[in-house]
From TrEMBL:
Organism of origin: Pelomonas aquatica
Family annotation (PANTHER family): GCN5-RELATED N-ACETYLTRANSFERASE 3, CHLOROPLASTIC, GLUCOSAMINE 6-PHOSPHATE N-ACETYLTRANSFERASE
Top-level taxon: Bacteria
CDD domains, A to Z: NAT_SF
The protein's name: GNAT family N-acetyltransferase
């Protein structure tokens, strides 16, 4: 990662830049409504982190800290929407923003952090393992809302 890179929390004022970056995650995604953007950034327990090089947002992820009644009532974290601009990959930006999110989860008292991916590429899995995740620790199951 370059020395001029900085990570910070994103707010509603960063929504346009974040939505543009998300095109490198899910190209062609329909944009959310302004109301949805406001609701997401106002949601307690959900934080978005952005890594900037100069004024450009080049990597991001979000962290949801979820309350819990097991494990002594300690929260757990869920990292989602990990993305690095296609032109900036391979420079450590993605790892840096993930490591930042993990540090924030530990600071919030989480006992674990979970990350899931729909990517089937073993290189993506290896990337997450380099970030410290254990791909064999848990198994995730997904159900999607039916169309209609």
């Amino acid at each position: 990662m370059t020395a001029e890179a900085a990570i910070r929390d994103l707010g509603a004022g960063d929504a346009d830049a974040l939505l543009a970056l998300y095109q490198h995650l899910n190209a062609g995604d329909a944009p959310p409504s302004p109301e949805a953007v406001r609701a997401v950034f106002a949601h307690a327990g959900l934080r978005h982190f952005g890594l900037f090089v100069g004024d450009a947002l080049v990597a991001s992820c979000n962290l949801a800290v979820l309350p819990n009644l097991t494990r002594g009532g300690r929260s757990h974290g869920v990292i989602e929407n990990v993305v690095t601009h296609a032109d900036r990959r391979g420079r450590g930006h993605g790892q840096a923003v993930i490591r930042h999110a993990i540090a924030q989860a530990w600071a919030a008292g989480c006992y674990k952090v979970v990350l899931t991916t729909s990517r089937k590429d073993p290189a993506v899995w290896a990337f997450y393992e380099r970030c410290g995740f254990d791909g064999g620790d848990k198994r995730a199951f997904v159900i999607r809302r039916p169309a209609g």
